[in-house]
Amino acid sequence: MALVYTFEEPTETHPVYTLSVYEDGVQVGCTTTPDRNDALQYEVNYINMGAKRKLTHDQRNNMIAEWNQADQQQKFWREKELALRASLVAEMYTKEKGTERVDLDAGWQLVIERGLDYKLENKNGETADVLDEIPSEIGALLVKWKPELSATNYNETTQEIRDKFNAILSIKPASPSVKLVPPKASKG
To answer: Could you tell me the pTM of the whole model?
Structure first.
């Protein structure tokens, strides 16, 4: 079971890079993107996944146990890093925002950067309501809109419309979500 890749350069009629991935003659992945590096990264992701392997029962269980241990360690160290970072900032940072440098031994410096995150609430159209109350030129300066694709509607539309979108659309494999679920307690 080998993976086969086809990589198509942009043409005048199809101005994007297209990478398709096939396993046993069946297409298992495809991306189109105007960025060559994105297309190449997509290929690397598939190469790293490799062909589906047939693991023994013990190999599978060992792999799951190793992943679970790494996942638990990652959570522990992430929480510890966040707590230590908060302590460092509380002890060594004096500004509300900006960059501060703390000189350490042997020429090292600890650089602490702090900013403010701004977020508009728009669950029920609150942002649009406020924008209706101010001049549109000012609203356009204050609020940036980021186009977001509705994958469900994209997949349900006609091929002709999807072809138009494919010139501006990049589709990449998402990082998989993995969760270990303990067995349910038996009733008895």
So the answer is: 0.51
